[in-house]
Each structure stands twice: as structure tokens, then as C-alpha cells.
Amino acid sequence: MIVAFKKGYHDLLSGNWWLALGIMVRTWSIYTHCELQFSDGYCITASSAINDSTKDGVDIRPLDVSGPEWDRIRIDITKFGWKSEAECRAKAEYYKNTNKGYAIGDLWKHELFGEKIKKSFQFYCSGIVACLLKRKPILINPGELYSKLMRLPHTCIA
After folding, report:
1. Are 90 and 76 in contact (CB under 8 A)?
2. CA dist., res. 103 & res. 66, Å (int)
3. Does pTM surpass 0.90?
4. Tens-of-pLDDT digits for all 158 residues of the chain?
5. Smallest Cα–Cα separation from 42: which of 83, 96, 79, 81?
């Protein structure tokens, strides 16, 4: 499996430049988004409808993360407490089906004021990926998640 991290500067020339710039400045990271890609090419993430054409919140969709705007880390999902990729995928489907929307307001409150995200099953991109990888804390931005994964002995650049 792959954890893919989108470099925000690729979005600075798009209609969402303000969102990318805000995330990059606030988190001091080049990464503004992340996805967990299964071996069949489908990815799970959480995003807002303003970010792309997908629905608001947690979704599983096919996505090509092979372009230059993505940095990729290859992971062995069994090293994160799952028996198989299928078991992790089932939990991902559960989160998709219990989706309560995208936590953009709560995310900004957390980032700016340290408030906890209170609504259950409301995620943002790095939160859902961290949750599926059983990483603590799940209140983590994409840049922090990238750094934590790169320090693990059982991950590598894809």
C-alpha cells in the first residue's frame, strides 16, 4: 500500500491557491493533502467539496498518485496492526459509510486554537489516514504524518 502526500505548491496556480497557501503557512509544510492508496488503485481520504469534485467528507475513489505533485511512502499494512489489506479496507469502507462530512471548521479551530475535534466520524485527510494506520495522534497534519512515517523502520519511499 502507498501513503501519498500532495505537495501544495502545485495547487498555488489553481483556483484553490488560497486553501493550499493557508495550509502550507499554518502547518509549515509543503504537504497539503494525503491519501491512503490500496493495491487496486483506490484511495481513501477526506476532503471538502470545494477542494475537488468528490463528495464532502470521507470517500474511497480511484486516483492516480504517480505524478510529480505527489510524494509516496510504501507501507506494509501488517506492520500497523492489520492482518491484511482487506481488513484495513473493510474499516475504510465503514468510515466511508458512517461519514459525517469534512471537519474543515473543526480542523481550523484545532490548528489555530488547539481545540479538539469533537464530532465522531468527521475527519480530514491526514486524520483518516492516521486513524487507519493506527497512529497517534490522529489530529495531525499531512507534513507531520509524512515525518512520522519516514522515521519508521518498515516504510520506504515508493
Report:
1. no
2. 27
3. no
4. 999 998 876 666 666 665 666 666 667 777 888 899 999 999 988 776 544 555 667 888 898 999 998 999 999 999 999 999 999 999 888 888 776 666 556 666 656 666 665 555 456 778 888 888 887 656 778 888 988 999 988 887 87
5. 96
Do residues 31 and 4 touch, judged by C-beta distance below 8 A? no
Cα 115 to the center of its chain, rounded Å = 20
Distance CA 142, CA 157 (A): 16
Record the cell numbers describing residue 119, joined without a space. Answer: 464530532
Whether 125 contacts 142, CB under 8 Å: yes
Residue listed under C-alpha cell 466520524: 121
User: By three-state DSSP, how is residue 82 classified?
Assistant: coil
* β-bridge mates for residue 156, sequence order: 74
Q: What angle, rounded to 10 degrees, do the helices at 104-113 and 17-27 form?
A: 30
Other C-beta atoms lying within 10 Å of the C-beta of residue 28:
9
Burial of 100 by CB count in 10 Å (0-12 exposed, 13-18 middle, 19+ buried)?
middle
